[in-house]
Design goal:
By secondary structure, this protein is an alpha/beta fold. It has helices at 2-6, 18-28, 43-52, 70-80, 95-103, 115-127, 135-142, 151-161, 166-173, 177-191, 196-205; strands at residues 10-14, 35-40, 57-62, 64-65, 68-69, 85-90, 108-111. The chain folds into two domains: 2-132, Rossmann fold (3-Layer(aba) Sandwich), CATH 3.40.50; 139-205, Orthogonal Bundle (Arc Repressor Mutant, subunit A), CATH 1.10.10. It is elongated, with a radius of gyration of 18 Å.
Length: 208
């Protein structure tokens, strides 16, 4: 049992306001798949904590630290600690930072208004090694750059990201399963991938 405890991913929380770190930390401490680690309010403190962390590490990051904004902090983390998985937390009014987070290599994003329901799911996926972005955020991110895919293909890909099976997608859209498979094949070809996971990853990153 002790051996399992040692291997729990450690979760650090960084935000310019310590009270925000503490609030997020109290939520993290209730999630059994992870172990709450320490808080940081500036990049120097964050670098020190990440440098001392062994094993799987997850960082929950606010859009600003006391000495830098999101893009600066993410740049530092990606350069010096590439194995750290990063979740960016932002207010609904700070959506531009979400776009920056995805482009700068964040593994996931979470809106503060949905943190109670979204964060446990996100951390669970990251523990399994999967990046995840909630579907409503994906829709906002990709609404203006989906020219490559047809409207129907975009619709099917969105449901794919939601985790629906081919059968569920066919039922939702009133299509046959074979038609859904045909559309998925076309989507994979357009995105130059050969799996559902590959298509979702491209969709998340906006690389299409």
């Amino acid at each position: 049992m002790d051996h399992v405890d040692i291997e729990l991913p450690r979760v650090f929380v960084a935000d310019r306001q310590l009270i925000v770190c503490q609030g997020i930390g109290s939520l993290v401490s209730q999630i059994p798949e992870v172990e709450l680690a320490e808080f940081a309010t500036d990049r120097k403190g964050l670098a020190r904590l990440l440098g001392q962390s062994d094993g799987k590490t997850i960082l929950i990051l606010g859009v600003r630290l006391s000495d830098g904004d999101l893009s600066q902090t993410l740049g530092m983390v990606r350069k010096d600690y590439p194995d750290v998985m990063v979740v960016v937390v932002a207010e609904d009014t700070e959506f531009a930072f979400i776009r920056t987070a995805i482009k700068s290599g964040a593994n996931s994003v979470c809106m503060m208004s949905q943190i109670l329901t979204s964060l446990p799911k996100i951390l669970g996926k990251l523990v399994e090694g999967h990046s995840i972005v909630p579907t409503d955020i994906l829709r906002r991110l990709t609404s203006e750059n989906a020219e490559v895919l047809s409207r129907r293909e975009h619709e099917i890909l969105t449901l794919l990201v939601d985790g629906l099976t081919n059968f569920q997608i066919s039922a939702r859209l009133g299509l046959s399963e074979n038609t859904v498979k045909y559309y998925l094949k076309a989507i994979y070809q357009k995105l130059d991938v050969n799996s559902r996971g590959g298509a979702i990853a491209k969709y998340v990153a906006g690389n299409y």
